[in-house]
Amino acid sequence: MAARILSLLAGILFAGVGWALIAPGAIGGVEPPTIQLGMFEGHRSFIGWGAAALGIVGLLSSVLPRGGGGGGGKRQAAPPVDFDAEPEPSAADGEPVSEGPTAFAPQAPPPTASPPPRVEAVADETFADLRDRLRTLVREEQWPTAAALARRLPTSATNDEERLLAARDLGDFARSQGAGDEAAEAYELALASARGLAAQAPTDPVRLAMLAGVLTGVGDAAQDEGRLEGAVEAYEEALEIRRQLARDDSSAEARRALSLALERLGDAREDRGHRVRALDLYRESFDIAGKLAAIDPQKYGEDLQVTRRRLGELEAKLAAV
């Protein structure tokens, strides 16, 4: 949020300077100061338009949603809750929760000033029924009603697992719509529930996988907001859990989750300027992706291609230094 405020102030400053140079007339009744350029007076128009362009960029970056850093072509994990698919098994069914943000498409239109739609309660509707209804609303692109239901989910949860799922679903939905602050708050609530569940059963791989997935959401939200230190901390904790799970479970999906966790931390490290550390993380991920692709090229071949491309980009950046 601080980065957005600074970007907004810088945008206003540069836009104002650009206007004063290009058309030094009154703006809203306020006469701007005369700016003397000395030996650069002959380039006044060029400098003015350049400053105005920087101002516009700063203003746009302060209001538009921010994606994660680290370059294009990053691998995406299977979403923890795919609203376009059949309902996923919960932790009570003995299935781990996948890592990564929910894939909502297309993005909902920006909110309007009209009051949110009322979500009518259905008699005997369970928490699982509400989540099924949310899936249906997203499939049908009924975005305002889906948003209202997503915000209602946490109040309908009756235990830690349901509170975790509700908060995570809300975080995924909010993040997919560019509501970074709401997503971060929801992920923090999900994290509290995930830590509580993991503390009750410290060796339970299902609960550990849920905790790692929520930590990834926390890191993604921090990355979106430019809070790189927070993103690195969350990704590092998620990576340690994924390492532990991969040591105890040699399945392909456990190793793929580890590979994805390595890349997420690598991207965050690169954004912080730690390119050598990021390169080590990507090389480790590439080794895992290569072994998985050798086992099942059709299923994991695309993963390997994306990881190879990102690794090549990092190596090229270091070589150019």
Describe this structure in words.
- This protein is mainly α.
- The chain folds into 2 domains: about 1-20 and about 45-65; about 90-320, Serine Threonine Protein Phosphatase 5, Tetratricopeptide repeat (Alpha Horseshoe).
- It has 11 helices and no strands.
- It has helices spanning about 1-20, 45-65, 125-140, 145-155, 160-175, 180-200, 205-225, 230-250, 250-270, 275-295, 295-320.
- α4 (about 145-155) runs antiparallel to α5 (about 160-175), α6 (about 180-200) packs antiparallel against α7 and α8 (about 230-250) packs antiparallel against α9 (about 250-270).
- The longest helix has 23 residues, at about 295-320.
- The model is unreliable at about 65-70 and about 80-105 (pLDDT under 50).
Poorly predicted residue ranges: 65-71, 78-106
Instruction: Characterize the overall form.
Output: globular
What is the number of domains? Answer: 2
- Under the CATH scheme, which class of the largest domain? Mainly Alpha
Distance between the termini: 31 Å
CA radius of gyration is: 23 Å
Q: Which structural category fits the helices and strands?
A: mainly alpha
Helix fraction bin: 55-70%
Give the CATH architecture of the largest domain. Alpha Horseshoe
Major sheet attributes:
none
Q: Quick one: how many beta strands?
A: 0
Number of helical stretches of at least 4 residues: 11
Could you please say which CATH topology of the largest domain applies here?
A: Serine Threonine Protein Phosphatase 5, Tetratricopeptide repeat
